[in-house]
Amino acid sequence: MKPQWSCLNDVKIIDVSQLLPGPHATSLLLQLGADVIKVEQPGSGDSSRLLGNAVFAQFNRGKRSIALNLKDPADKAAFLDLVRDCDAVVEGFRPGVMQRLGLGYEELARVNPAIVLCSISGFGQSGPYAAHAGHDLNYLAMAGYWSIPVQVEDKVARPKVRLSDYAASAYAALSLSVAIMSARQQGVGQHLDVSVHDSILSWTAHMAWLARGFEDNPVASPTVMPENDIFQTGDGRHLAMGILENKFWVTLCEVLGDEFPQLRDERFANRMSRFGHKQEVNALLKDLFLSRTLEQWTLAFAEHDLPFSPLLSASELFDDPHVQARGTVRPLPLERTISVGFPVKFSRGLPDSDTTVPALGEYSVEAFKREQG
C-alpha cells in the first residue's frame, strides 16, 4: 500500500535506462510512491541482467517490465502510447540517440506536452566531451577526485562504490520530483540534462579549487589531517579515527596518554600546532595503533566519546546491531540477496518495499492502457 500523503502516488514514470544511474533514480521515486514501467530491449533486456539476477534486482525491484524494440515502428508507436499517459521518461543513452530514434523531447512533447524527459549521460548533452565514452572511474578522474590531498601518505586507489553514478542518480531523482510537480501545475514539461560528470564535479569542485595552492606540497593542504585517517591495527585489520574537533584529541590523550606519553607533546596540543607537525603526528598514531588488535582497540574506546570506528568486514556489516535496528537493509533468504529500502525515515511512513523482480516483458502496453481506463 502506498503512503496516502505522498505527492508521487499517481506519478507514472517510463524507465528506458540501464545499469545504475537511471534505474537507481527511478527506484528511489518508486519507493516514494511512483509507478515505474521499465521498457527493455526484447531478448536481452537491461544490460545488468547479464551480470546476474541479484545485480538486476538491486535497482529494479517493484517495477513492471515491457519489452519494446524502439527501432521497430510498431513498438515505437506503442512506446509513444505509453508516453501519452505518463509523467516522465528516463533514458541513459549517449546524446543524440533518442533523437535518432524519433523519440527526442520535441517528439515526446507533441504526444504529451506535460512530459518530462530526463536524459542521464556521462558528460551531458552539450560540451566537447558530450560524445565521449566513459564509466564511473572516468568521471571521477575528470572531476578532479584524485587531485584532492587527504592523507599524509596519500594513495591513488579506486573507490569501492560507483560514486559518480550515485551522485547523478540522486540529482536525477530530485530534479524529476520538482519537474514532474511543476509540469502538473503548469501543463508544460521540460528536458532535464543530467551529466554524471557535472554531478560528481559539484561534490569535488570546492576541495579541488583549494588544492590548486598545494600541488607542490600536498601535505600542507588543510584537507590533510594527520589524526583524521585510517590506521592499521596489530592483527592486520584497520580502524578509522575521525578526530576533527580538538576536544577529541584531548579525550584520546586522556585515554592513552599514560601509556603513550608522546601524545601529550605540547607541540600537538591544539589542532593548528598538530598541522605544523603532520608527519610526526601521523607516524605516532600509525605506530600506536599497530600495538594492539582491532578488538582490543574497540574495547579500549568503548566507554569514551571518540570518533572511532572499526572497518567492518562484509559479514560484520550485516550483523551490526545498528544496521539491524534501522532496518534499511532487508535480507531475502529465498533469493540469497537483500532489499535496500529508502534511507530516509518518514514520520508518516513509507510502504514496505516491493521485492518482486520483474521478468523481461512480463507486462504489456495493452495492460497499462486498460489500467488507465
Automatic annotation (TrEMBL):
Keywords: Transferase
Keyword Nucleotide-binding: no
Domain of life where this protein originates: Bacteria
Gene3D superfamilies: Crotonobetainyl-coa:carnitine coa-transferase, domain 1, formyl-coa transferase, domain 3
Molecular function GO terms recorded: transferase activity
The protein's name: CoA transferase
Organism of this sequence: Pseudomonas alkylphenolica
